[in-house]
Amino acid sequence: SDLANGIGQALFTTAAGLCVAISCFVAYNYLVSRIDSITLDMEKASSEIIYFFKRNWDNLKKSLTEGDHEK
Predict the structure, then answer these.
(1) Better pLDDT: 65 or 47
(2) Residue 16 DSSP one-character state
(3) Burial of 28 by CB count in 10 Å (0-12 exposed, 13-18 middle, 19+ buried)?
(4) Three-class SS of residue 71?
(5) What is the spatial distance between Cα 36 and Cα 43, in angstroms, rounded to a whole number?
(6) φ/ψ of residue 3, rounded to 5
(7) Eight-class DSSP state of 1
């Protein structure tokens, strides 16, 4: 009887621990996927910014130097 109670308590605590662990695992994977998605968006945006400045650098440089001559 005492042995059965001990085994029952061990099974209950194991099940509770698994519920907590599985919940944490799901939350962790969700957060990692969100971080990966945000990181990818940031990389795309930075690539677009670099591409914009590479294509328009001469025009930007010219407009900045013309602005200095007008003063």
Answers:
(1) 47
(2) H
(3) exposed
(4) coil
(5) 10
(6) -65, -40
(7) -
Q: Which two tokens stand for residue 47?
A: 């690539």
Q: Give the amino acid at 69.
A: H
Task: pLDDT band for 68, please (50, 70, 90 cuts).
Answer: low
- In single-letter form, the type of residue at position 3 comes to L
**Residue pair 60/53 in contact by the 8 Å Cβ criterion:** yes
Q: H helices of the chain, where?
A: 2-70
**For residues 46 and 39, is the Cβ–Cβ distance under 8 A?**
no
Of 25-29, 47-51, 58-62, 66-70, least confident by mean pLDDT is 66-70
